[in-house]
Q: What sequence folds into this?
């Protein structure tokens, strides 16, 4: 299926169409240039007067954030090691400076 990307007059992503369905819709603050809404995430708020371009809050669309995580483990230096939320799992690899170097997400589909 064909996917089309559309941009506004300032060359920012406006929306994405897959066939006749809009799969993503964006809106921007034209005075500041920041994202106002993103259909798959929610509304973005910029309330810090000292940092007017810094994102201060996201008001998410419903069900974008899971209610619970099945399992969460940490490394010896208190960084996230694994996250399990069926049917997804994420694992993290860190470098010698304890900085995240890699993240791997797996989708486990069990067919009974």
A:
């Amino acid at each position: 299926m064909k996917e089309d990307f559309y941009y506004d007059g300032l060359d920012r992503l406006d929306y994405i169409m897959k066939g006749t369905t809009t799969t993503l819709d964006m809106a921007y603050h034209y005075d500041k240039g920041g994202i106002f809404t993103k259909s798959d995430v929610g509304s973005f708020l910029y309330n810090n007067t000292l940092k007017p371009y810094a994102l201060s809050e996201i008001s998410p669309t419903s069900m974008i954030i899971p209610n619970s995580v099945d399992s969460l483990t940490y490394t010896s230096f208190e960084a996230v090691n694994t996250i399990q939320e069926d049917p997804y799992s994420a694992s993290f690899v860190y470098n010698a400076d304890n900085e995240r170097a890699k993240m791997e997400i797996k989708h486990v589909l069990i067919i009974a």
Q: What stands out?
A: The chain has a mean pLDDT of 87. The chain is about 0% helix and 50% strand.
